[in-house]
Amino acid sequence: MADEHYVSMDQLQLGLYVYLDLKWFEHPFAFSHFKIKSDDQIKTLRTLGLKQIRYSPELSDAAPPPRKAASVEATATPTAIAQPELSPVMLAKRAMMEQMKLRRQAAERIEKAFATTAHVIRDVEKNIYSRPAETVQQATKLIKEIADSILSAPELAIHVMGDKMGGEELYFHSLNVTMLSMMMARDLKLPIEVVGALGMGALLHDIGRKEVPDKILRKTEPLTQAERNFYEMHCQFGVEIGQRLHLAAPVLAIIREHHELFDGSGYPGKLKGEATSLLSRIVVIANHYDELCNPLLIADALTPHEALSLMYAKLRGKFDAKLLQVFIRCLGVYPPGTIVQLSNGVIGMVATVNTARPMKPMLVVYDANVPKDEAIMLDMEAETEVNIAKAIRPAQVPREVYTYLSPRKRVSYYFDAATPRTDSAKPG
Asked: Angle CA(110)–CA(113)–CA(114) in degrees, nearest 5?
């Protein structure tokens, strides 16, 4: 709008779309601009000590009433009646800020755990030939730790990771497939010993790629038929390596079958339906999803939301239908890493999904008035005034918004035992 429009405090009414020209920590609202929907919001606005508030005629449902003659004088300072309300309002804001501080601390802790786990996986893959027995022992210990954590958690949160370990994307793939597979195992309530085999198979599913030349693995143009044939042999190479490592039969099955598809169009055996093991069918889904999100050519990468939508809408027949439903239910309609637009126009990124309430993720919200390192974290389960309107591609948002939210070129996940929420927030 060419001209800025303001209303005095006595002109506030339902339906006005207002902008608070205050720092985020100076008001108790989740957003610095919103449509007034309740008398309580009006009462709170009048405690902020403002003489007038900027508003948008275009976004408002009605024009404000005429200004009263004494309104300017009356609103120059907060009234004596309003002053006592200021304290609880700001206490609520400080409590909110403290909650977000704790969330950031938790995120930092999880980032460190993720980095440690990725380093372990790097060592496992690097030392599989030179120290096989020690490496298998290390992998077994890691899988047990992950399984114990995931299976024992009353609630499980999926966190999208930042790009802080450049050059180690290959290890991230193994970690992603392992984590996502074990997430599904948790939902399916598989026995702990079965989960151990699943984790080991997922972790080592691509071990046979060590026998494939880099010129094939890293080729960005379409492979020749001969190259394709050689590449597909990585499944058998992996089985042979696994046999030398004395891996259990269920683990070997995963390594052999992680590219077999439910409709028989996969490889190496073109096995169809339940001709492959349950554990293999789990890993197939996790592996395919991560390959869509993190292809060799990053320009071809799909967003998590796009990848999940594609698998369900167009590739559904290639996967075990029951397991695909489990996968979608756990990740949610908007998986971590998805950029979304809220019903009020605000842009955010899904930072965390609680598997118990996948439709109500935690968002990092863009607000130009809030420093990036203090970005608002919005719990959609606690929000009643706004909801997620749609997922949007990173290219559709302004550069400054993209940089602020830092949606990553490559998507990596890590799981954490979430702190149970209050009874009021439990799923129905």
From this structure: 85
Is residue 201 within 8 A of residue 253, CB to CB? The reply is yes
| DSSP symbol at 32 | S
Alpha helices in 299-398 (DSSP H): 304-313, 321-331
User: 200, 140 in Cβ contact below 8 A?
Assistant: yes
**What does the pLDDT look like over 244-296, one tens digit per residue?**
999 999 999 999 999 999 999 999 999 999 999 999 999 999 999 999 998 88
Coil, helix or strand for 371? coil
Q: For the whole model, what pTM was predicted?
A: 0.78
- What is the rounded distance in angstroms from the CA atom of residue 109 to the CA atom of residue 146? 15
Rounded-to-integer distance, Cα 276 and Cα 256, Å: 10
Distance of alpha carbon 62 from alpha carbon 73, whole angstroms: 25
* CA–CA–CA angle 421, 427, 428 (5° rounding): 145
Q: How far is CA 44 from CA 9, 47, 83, 88, in A?
A: 11, 5, 11, 10
Tokens for 365? 């919200």
**134 sits in which H/E element:** helix 132-152
Task: Give the pair of three-digit tokens for residue 217.
Answer: 């693995």
The whole-angstrom separation of Cα 296 and Cα 222 is: 12
